[in-house]
Amino acid sequence: MLLIVCRLIVYTRITLPIMTITKKFGSRLKEIRLAKNISQEELSYRAELHRTYISSVELGKRNVSLVNIEKLAKALDCQIIDFFITKQK
């Protein structure tokens, strides 16, 4: 006699609001840009990037290259590390 046992396993995935590195970077970019009172258009001109690209980066929709991170840092007159550190409140 052959006995076959089948089990139905149901996994429930809980989706937690996790801020991705692209969203963190974009948020920090926007924070620095606003602190310097620079518009997206002005930043795009200074960094030689398209305005819609700047918007996408700030929304966390783009995976920014190191070359573009450097352009953004120069355009904002800050260091690259400033994009990755946050001020403690």
In short:
This protein has helices at residues 21-35, 40-47, 51-58, 66-75. By secondary structure, it is mainly α.
What does this protein look like?
With 89 residues, the protein is an all-alpha fold. The protein has one domain: lambda repressor-like DNA-binding domains (434 Repressor (Amino-terminal Domain)). Helix content is 46%, strand content 0%. 12% of the residues are buried.
Termini, distance in Å? Answer: 70 Å
- Find the CATH superfamily: lambda repressor-like DNA-binding domains
* Helix content estimate: 40-55%
* C-alpha-based Rg, rounded: 21 Å
Distinct helical segment count: 4
Number of strands: 0
Number of structurally distinct domains: 1
Low-confidence stretches: none
- Which structural class matches the secondary elements? mainly alpha
Named at the architecture level, the CATH assignment is: Orthogonal Bundle
The string of secondary-structure elements, in order, is HHHH
Q: What is the 3D shape? A: elongated
User: Major beta sheet, specifics?
Assistant: none
How much of the sequence is in beta strands?
under 5%
Mean pLDDT: 87
Q: CATH first level: which class?
A: Mainly Alpha
| Assembly classification | single chain
